[in-house]
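Sequence and fold:
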Amino acid sequence: MSGVRIPHRAQIPLRVLFDTAFPCAYRRGTYMPPTFHTSFGLELSLPQVVREIVRFITADPTRRYKVTIGTDSEQSQSRMADFVTAIVVHRVGNGGRYFWRRTKLGKFHTLRDRIIKEVLISLEAAESLLTLLRTEAKHLDWSFEVHADVGENGETKVLIQEVVGMIRANNYEARTKPDSYAASKVADRHV
């Protein structure tokens, strides 16, 4: 990405970090932070994330790209749940970039409730991201997937059909473990 200069966090004006086009949202009782973090510590609004994705794809347009979203969560001793949503841009066969945000929510009494909330957060983020990305990157070659943190091994295997059905009902391609790296690897790293 020659010629692209990422400013140091201190150089980004506050009004850019809290873009009024995408303020904090209160949907279904969920607080959605307005900023995503990069892997190297910058805070970006969703429109800035989309611009970074477009820059990354246009840096090598001959490659195939996958844009994925996944959410992972962890319940603390106080029963508060910490959700991390990751947006991953994978340059197939040659690395990628990711962006993440953290959301803290109230008590979840069952694993099923928490997993369903992970998927709902991913779907809300996907809707917002794709609204912008389809406009900005319509001329570029990329595919999109929603990754769920459920798999054949462990307690979540009984939720696979339900979760995949939710994602497909929203017209997105669904991936589960071990192929759901956005949720089970990237988001999990920041929980």
